[in-house]
């Protein structure tokens, strides 16, 4: 973990002065279930991308390219909305 | 140099406070009625209707919303105020902490009134005393003049970059809020020059420099942010002195951390706050004529509590009676606890005598205060803090 600053060296009141730094906050560790893509079923409809509340569906050239596991919290919404059953939620234990 | 001032005006405490708000000309004021504060909201709404101020008046649906409204407005970069009493303050509770923790210098007159139940609209201090740990400055006012001065002083201190904390200015419900007294207002321009323009460092409305207000804050930084708040409170003392001196030059009135009324050689001292101090001064004057060495220490700044200074001011007394107008059920009164804490490590210290009085507006007159002074020599002889005594309470 990076070194945290002392109280004299942070903005008061919990203010965050720089924009767009949520990406520095690794929320992926909160996950208990992990979404896994079943490549053969995916049609790249990108409905999962629209629904993911954490912007954790990776898309490249209109193709669904898997998940940003640093920020995916494992809510399972993507698996729920996928019309083709192409996302499976697996227990995070399997990956420890 | 004392500036030319308007003459004395007959104003109620609430009108005096509303006039301070008019002169401050806040960007946003949230209003919600509650007795005995309502007259502040009403008078201020009239100023808005008459075009005397540029304020955006927001009529909210509860005090929780009033506080939320001024928190949002202050974070956006607006100078923001509201006022309340009793249950209204209680309903604001959650957001009081948001205001102080977000370091928003909101100034709020609190017209002290008892809390329900049974329902009671009259004065005691259980509302603001309950909020003493909410991270707000608290200034207490003996009369309408002091309430007026305190609002202007509080704003100057609250907005100082070394403080940036909200402030309550307390005055007694009905006794002060609805009594007409002679109040001297500064002229509007003098007040505006004294407070200056409000320049928040990171207003939300500055879209060129976007900031996040009130984000999630866990075990990694929350504690550090609380430590900063403690520091902000600690800084109040030096900022207070500077602002008080500056205001003194304009009004020719003094604003010490607390007022020492004939305490210098006093053997017996009463500590109290708000309107009771006026009554106590009259008793002190009377008893002084009879060569009794008595005095009054009137607390003005209760948060932060100037404990070193107060300890020093009472160290030579034999007995100090501490008068609380709010009960801390299961413990001693809040003012008593502060004073006891202030003197606890002094070598030679006075004996303290706790008193509880005036709950729900129960009358406290000169005879009651005289009786307190007359009980103190016995405490001195017995050399120990007696059990709390209840002033003007029926036992049977
Ligand atoms: S919703 Fe399902 S099918 Fe559509 S892109 Fe996502 S994983 Fe593929
Ligand atoms: S599990 Fe939730 S957070 Fe993770 S990718 Fe799916 S929708 Fe996004």
Brief overview, please?
Chain A is of the alpha+beta class. Chain A has helices at residues 47-51, 77-81, and strands at 33-37, 57-60, 63-67, 87-91.
Your description of this structure?
The complex is a heterodimer of chains A (96) and B (396). Chain A is of the alpha+beta class and 96 residues long. Chain A has a single domain, classed as Alpha-Beta Plaits. Helices cover 10% and strands 20% of the residues of chain A. Chain A is built from two helices and four strands; from the N terminus they run βαββαβ. Chain A has helices spanning 47-51, 77-81; strands spanning 33-37, 57-60, 63-67, 87-91. In chain A, the strands form two sheets. Chain A has a two-stranded antiparallel sheet. In chain A, strand 2 and strand 3 form a beta hairpin. The longest helix of chain A has 5 residues, at 47-51. The radius of gyration of chain A is 17 Å and the shape is elongated. Chain A starts with 32 loop residues before the first strand and ends in a 5-residue tail after the last strand. Chain B folds into two domains: 8-251, Rossmann fold; 258-390, Rossmann fold. Helix content of chain B is 41%, strand content 18%. Chain B has helices at residues 13-24, 38-49, 63-76, 86-101, 126-130, 144-158, 188-195, 222-251, 276-289, 307-314, 334-343, 366-382; strands at 8-12, 28-31, 56-59, 80-81, 107-112, 137-141, 167-172, 180-184, 258-261, 268-273, 294-299, 301-303, 319-324, 351-356, 389-390. In chain B, the strands form four sheets. In chain B, strands 9-11-10-13-14-15 form a six-stranded mixed beta sheet, sandwiched between helices. In chain B, strand 14, helix 12 and strand 15 (389-390) form a beta-alpha-beta unit. The longest helix of chain B has 30 residues, at 222-251. The model of chain B has no long low-confidence stretch (mean pLDDT 97). The chains are: A alpha+beta (96), B alpha/beta (396). The A-B interface holds A 4-7, 10-17, 19 and B 101-104, 164, 202, 209-215, 217, 220-221, 224-225, 227-228, 231-232. Bound molecules: iron/sulfur cluster (2 copies).
